[in-house]
Amino acid sequence: MSLPSDAFQHVASRPHEPLRTFHPRRAALGRDREDALARLFPRWGFSVHDEAAPFPRTDDGHLDAGTLFGRHAPLVLEIGPGMGDTTVAMAAADPGRDYLAVEVHLPGLAQLLLLVERAGLSNVRVAHGDALELVRHALAPGALDAVHAFFPDPWPKARHHKRRLVQPEHVALLRSRLRPGGTLHVATDWEPYAHQMAQVLADDPGLVSDGLGDRPAHRPVTKFESRALAEGRRSYDVVARRRA
């Protein structure tokens, strides 16, 4: 089964659809990635929006992670894993937790599936679509051990700041799905956005934030981050924990 590159676009046509925090892009998949989607997506993936590619649900309608992964383990939500290198590296180093990577861009999702297959990992699953929609409608309160959002689109123009992922209403939603003590970890190479991230997480009454910091050792350097460093831009990380 291969997903069309516009598989998520019908979501934006619904009345009163919230502003998206991502910018749709088009890119050719190539033979290997088309093959990965056809072979691996039915086994390890599902669509956030397409009922033809459903995900397992509990009796109350929430995502059934135990069925999805075939075990019960702490769950990490990866928002926008890019081309998947960081997700695979972290999941490989952290076999006791399960990683659900949600991506809107099919080339990255397909590449992640290829990397998971090559690494022989069993603790990674993928979802195609808007991560906030999945969180809002399918994840139960307290279902997550951690949320990672590394280098989301900074939407640098002031008129686009309302589209940023890290803003109070989105952070409150993500925090509500964390278990007490669970972590929300965000990173960016855009300094003004970094300060906004730090302020929003510090202001959330349900979180305890470490403030702006350097990349922790357990987060690999992403390819995007490597390019930013080569261009003279440093990265900033903010880690916050849900209050007990």
Automatic annotation (TrEMBL):
UniProt keyword annotations, A-Z: Methyltransferase, S-adenosyl-L-methionine, Transferase, tRNA processing
Pathway participation: tRNA modification; N(7)-methylguanine-tRNA biosynthesis
The terms under GO molecular function for this entry are: tRNA (guanine(46)-N7)-methyltransferase activity
- What NCBIfam families does UniProt report for this protein, alphabetically? tRNA (guanosine(46)-N7)-methyltransferase TrmB
Q: Could you tell me which InterPro entries the record lists for this protein?
A: SAM-dependent_MTases_sf, tRNA_(Gua-N-7)_MeTrfase_Trmb, tRNA_methyltr_TrmB_bact
Q: Where are the transmembrane segments?
A: none
Residues bound to S-adenosyl-L-methionine are E78, E103, D130, D153
Return the similarity comment.
Belongs to the class I-like SAM-binding methyltransferase superfamily. TrmB family.
Binding positions (substrate): K157, D189, T222, K223, F224, E225
Q: Which GO terms describe its cellular component?
A: tRNA methyltransferase complex
Q: What is this enzyme's catalytic activity, as reactions?
A: guanosine(46) in tRNA + S-adenosyl-L-methionine = N(7)-methylguanosine(46) in tRNA + S-adenosyl-L-homocysteine
Q: Write the protein's name.
A: tRNA (guanine-N(7)-)-methyltransferase
EC numbers for this chain? 2.1.1.33
Q: What does this protein do?
A: Catalyzes the formation of N(7)-methylguanine at position 46 (m7G46) in tRNA.
Q: Known PROSITE patterns for this protein? A: SAM_MT_TRMB (PS51625)
